[in-house]
Design goal:
Strands 1-2 form a two-stranded antiparallel sheet. The protein has 110 residues and is mainly α. 46% of the residues lie in helices and 9% in strands. The termini are far apart. It is built from 3 helices and 2 strands; from the N terminus they run αααββ.
Length: 110
């Protein structure tokens, strides 16, 4: 009875693993011994913690949101400043009467 219960628990665990991994078929997993040794943990975990905090997507999202709000605030403030525009045009008149104008060019500035 205990052996059947253990087999049933193993099959349930495999089905749960398949569901978590997103497989739609039953995959049979075989447990093997890993002969490789794990690397030693560093004595000072602070660099690992800093890297983990920098790579968190939720904290990056908050940081980008803050930067966007600052840029938006700066843009709104810049809109209060006055603007100066200048326009100039120079050209030649291809057709016209020499009776009223001495030359065939014109110029305008605003």
């Amino acid at each position: 009875m205990l052996q059947l219960d253990a087999r049933n628990n193993l099959d349930a665990a495999k089905a749960s693993l398949n569901a978590v991994l997103g497989y739609d078929k039953l995959v049979d997993y075989q447990l093997v011994e890993d002969a490789k040794a794990f690397p030693a943990f560093p004595l000072n975990p602070d660099p690992l913690i800093d890297t983990a905090i920098q790579n968190r997507p939720d904290l990056q999202s908050l940081q980008f949101t803050q930067e966007a709000a600052q840029k938006f605030s700066r843009a709104q403030h810049d809109q209060l400043r006055p603007t100066v525009n200048a326009v100039a045009a120079v050209g030649a008149t291809p057709v016209g009467s020499d009776q009223y104008f001495n030359s065939n060019w014109y110029g305008a500035a605003a």
